[in-house]
Every structure is written in structure tokens, then in C-alpha cells.
Write a structure and sequence with these properties.
two-stranded antiparallel ribbon; two-stranded antiparallel sheet
Length: 261
Amino acid sequence: LVAALVCLACGVAIWLRGSASTANRCAAVLLAGATHWGVCEALWTLAPDAASAEWRVRASAPGWIAVGPLCLHLFLAQETRSWRGLRRALPFLYALAAGALLLVWTEPWLGVHWMFAGVEPVAWGFAYHVGPGYALWYFGTLLCVTIGITAPFWDAQRQLSPAETSQRRWLGTGIGVPLVLGSVTDGLLPIFGVDVPRLGVASFAVFGATVTWSTHRFGFSVLTPSSFAREILESLPEGVALATPDGRVRVANASLADLLG
């Protein structure tokens, strides 16, 4: 529950900082999903019986089922021209996630166990058993996250400022290590029937805290490079505006607002 609250707080902070940014929206949705996931996990841990626990495990699916497409979308939101082809795959990946969610919710009535094969009591509550479909979902998600993290960093590695280099180092550690740890405890080990306490929600809490802290520390986020340009724009004493050919103002800085009243 503490991890879920951290995810919620960081998600709200990221959203409020710039909801117009696609990357910020993706990060906020990821953390909102982790909040839902964490609450459901607390509830299934405290469930009175296996049937209630399994229902709560399935109810948690909206929080984690689209992690792969969302992570890929988050990192590809930057203008990395060499990876444009991946953006075209995003609608297909979101559709696959929606199909997997539908399967998670309907398979008890269909009499199949393709995603989940029930739960059993363990020392800390209940642990879930997975089917072959879950393994496919896990490796697909891992592939999306790996490509998503690699693509923009590889694309921009030769044109980084010292601040960007430092921030990417922090983000690489703060995002990569928890996601690897969480994916192992919540995804890989259950596939092999190994039951350990799950760290997936805690890993997202660390992810949210890292993104929030790095943005506060450096004044901008490498996940949303345009925010750096906005910081510079707002620091100028001159009034600056971006207008469309028909005269409609799209962006203006505070100095222009002051000059024009």
C-alpha cells in the first residue's frame, strides 16, 4: 500500500508538471496503473480464501497488462527519427494488451487457464500460478521495455549535454534496476513455479520517485526534451510567441504576457 501511494503521488506530480507531453502522460498512466495494481495486490494478500484472491488477482490486470506498450510509447515520444517505424506498431501492441485483458477476465467462464491457473496459500498471503499465455505476455513486455529504453538513448548518445548525461545515468539506474528486479519476482519466477514476495509495485514506486527527483534536481526531464526548451523560453526577458499562419498563438512565454498585459 505504501508503494501504491508513492506511485500515486509521483504520477500526479508528473502529470501536473506537463500533461501536454506524451511522455509525461504515459509515465503518469503507468504509475496510475501501478497504484491500482498495488491496491489489488494488498487486497488479494489479505483475501479470506483462494477464490476471492484469484478474483482480485484478475482485477489487478488493468494495472500491468499494458506496461510494455506504455513503456515503449513513453520513450518513443521523443523525436527519434530512426525509430519511427516502432511508433506505427503501438496501436497493434495496445490492441494485443486489450485482448490479453479480455482473456484474463473471461477465461474462468471459458473454462481455460491460458493466463492464470489459480492461486495457492503461501506464508505472506496468496501466490498465483500462470499459464502459457502469461509467459508470452511477459517476454513480449520485456522486449517492449528493452527496446523502449534502448531506442532514444542510443539515438541521442552522441549529442548529449553534461546535464543530460548525468540525468540519463541516474534514470538508467533508477528505472532499469527496479524494473528488472520487479519483472523477475512478478513475471519470470512465477513462470517457473517459484513463489517469492512480489516487488513489481515497489519497482514502479522507485521508477516514479527517480523520474520525479531527477526532474526536480535538473530542472527538466530527458524523457521530455521539449521541457528543457520551455525552461529556456520562460527565462528569456524578451516576449516570444509561436503563431500559426492564420495568426493564432500556439505558445507564448510569461514575458510576452507581461508585456501585453
